[in-house]
Amino acid sequence: MWAKLKRQIWRWRGVLITVPSITGGLLILGLTGALQFMELVALDQMFRLRPFEPPDPRIVLVTVDESDIKQLRQWPMSDAVLSRLISLLKQQQPRVIGLDIFRDLPVEPGHQELVNVFKSTPNLIGIEKVIKTAQGEVIQPSPILKQRGQVSASDLLLDADGRIRRSLLYLRTQDNQSILTLGTKLAFAYLEGEGITRQPVNSNQNQFRLGRAVFTSLQPNDGGYIGVDNGGYQILSNFPRFRNGFRTISITDVLKGRMPRHFVRDRIVIIGLIAESVEDRFFTSYTTNSIAAPAGVQVHALLTSQLLSAAEYGRPLLHVWSEPLEWLWIILWSIIGSVIGWTSVSPQRTASGVIFFGIALLISAYVLFLAGWWLVIILPLLALVGSAITSNGYLMWENLKEYARTLEQKVEERTLRLKQEIVERKQAQETLSQQKQLLQTIVDNIPVMITLHDRQGRVEFVNRQLGQILGWSTTDLNNIDLIAESCFDKEQRQQVLDHMLAATGTWLDVKIRTKDDNFVNTSWANVQFCDRLFVGIGQDITERLDAALRERKLAEQSSILEERNRMAREIHDTLAQAFTGILLHVGAASELIGKNPDAVQVHMETVDELARTGLAEARRSVAALRPQLLEEGNLYNALNRLTSQMKSSTDIHLHCEVIGTAYPLSPNVENNLLRIGQEALTNAIKYANAHEICIELVYEHKQCLLRVKDDGQGFEIDNISFRGFGLLGMSERTERIGGELIINTQPTQGTEVVVIVNRE
């Protein structure tokens, strides 16, 4: 167990060393406050990335800008103007009015009128400055309002960089009295009308409940702050982000009666200055330039809106983790960085991991910020980066030492290997020499001609076979330029050179002049050996050409014989069939010549038609054209017409029918099927002694069938002779169209001839 634990400790030694050292150093650095400004800047950036919120309809600002001061023609405004302003606002019955204008001294005329208005307005809240200025001064409130308890503090808290990130809820006056700030007092007064009051949570008064929110006072080291002055009751500012700010109306519009009806009814009204000349501008986390900096009255309104939304709607306040949790947060990212650096095989992998987890850190901090938690970012980010760099550097140092240790071993091994390689190289040279001799023997004795030539056609190497065929010795061939020495016909020289340089590997037949001035028929293929040299491979094809010539003569003789057979079949299928029909009709006419002249005339007309058809078929056979019957219609019509011609010359009942939907076949198939049907029909009439003959043309989806059936005497299938042109012709025609010939017959059972061909 202990040994296994030691192995694990040694395996992760880089992480175990890096995390305490980096985390400890950063915590010490953070406690000095050196990183406070960076944490606050990071907090500001998260505020600026926050999405916009809808405007707060509960608050209305009555503002005084430069144009209003010009209209009033004096500043501060007189008590008469202020009393009239408050009276006009009171007419719409606002819930509470905040006066963010100091009124410690009377400004005549109209002071008594203002005192009367103050006395008659219990929901009016004035201000005083409690925290001393740089000159050690404070600003007193209006005596009437102070006497009536309608006073609040106007003080705002600024960080070292002049930004407002903390908000005062209440503080102590010089006489040790507790006083609420203006934004807080206005919010509390509004919430009292909603039945929401402040409820203490603990005895030390650092927590209280207001509606749906629990407030906790800021501690000196909360969040990114280090040793901050947390006097009074402070909270972290979590001001809402409005696109267009609060609903606003100028003091001039109110005094001139241009305020819309019910504009301030049951709302919080805050009267204050926004004029540039008064210099009452403050920077918040949202502020990026002095032009967009809000005035003091707007900052008080933001605090009021924050408190109202938290109490009524549960909008998150900005909370922080305790210091132990923040330390664990920093340690976690230090561990992640150390693991990345210790397990990465290269600095690039380390950088990629740091970037990925750094983005994850920022995203998680931002998501928690939107939920109301301020987590420190800079310290964990530095812990992530620093730990990754340190652990990866330590790993590289360990690897470098290991590399140095193995380098010496590799040098020794390499020295031994070199000695072995020298021995192996000598053996390889001997083997190469033997292989070279073997290759030379093969090249010299291989039964093909081999040349090695350059781009100009100059031959640099030839084998013995080429010398034997051309009649030159090897010494002569090594120095000869085959192209320049006129070894080829003049017409072939350029063709041969182009073929040699193309090096496509295709064969070219050429005649080469031998040393004794004869020509040898050869065939050459050329391939590229390297950038400069080409290899030529040649064969003596004299015997092959002679054999080809003999084969050509045999083919011509076979072609002539095939053509004769074709003509014989055509004559048999056309002229012979026509003559047979003529003879049948002449015989029939002879029997009826004295008995029925009209029938004789019909037979003679059929003889005339058969003679003319036979003559046309003879001419078409010579020209190798389609039969006349097919020229005038499709295959079924041709068979039907053929049947009609045969009916008049015999007493046998003949009929032709088609089964299925007819579709066209290729001309060659239709031609052969017609001839086969014609031959089968003629044979049945002449030899079957049948009473009925039926021709069927069957069109199926994938094949076509021609069927000729008779009820005649039939015959023994084994005694069929194919030597005549009839059955032999049908068999050859069927084979020519890729079909199948089937003959079904038995003595006294009739005969059926079937031809089956594929549709395609």
From TrEMBL:
Alphabetized GO MF terms: phosphorelay sensor kinase activity; protein dimerization activity
Entries under InterPro entries matching the protein: CHASE2, HATPase_C_sf, HATPase_dom, PAS, PAS-like_dom_sf, Sensor_HK_TwoCompSys, Sig_transdc_His_kin_sub3_dim/P
Domain PAS, first and last residues per copy: 435-477
Listed GO CC annotations: membrane
CDD domains: HATPase_UhpB-NarQ-NarX-like, PAS
Keywords associated with the record: Kinase, Membrane, Transferase, Transmembrane, Transmembrane helix, Two-component regulatory system
NCBIfam families named in the record: sensory_box
This protein's name: PAS domain-containing protein
Organism for this UniProt entry: Brasilonema sennae CENA114
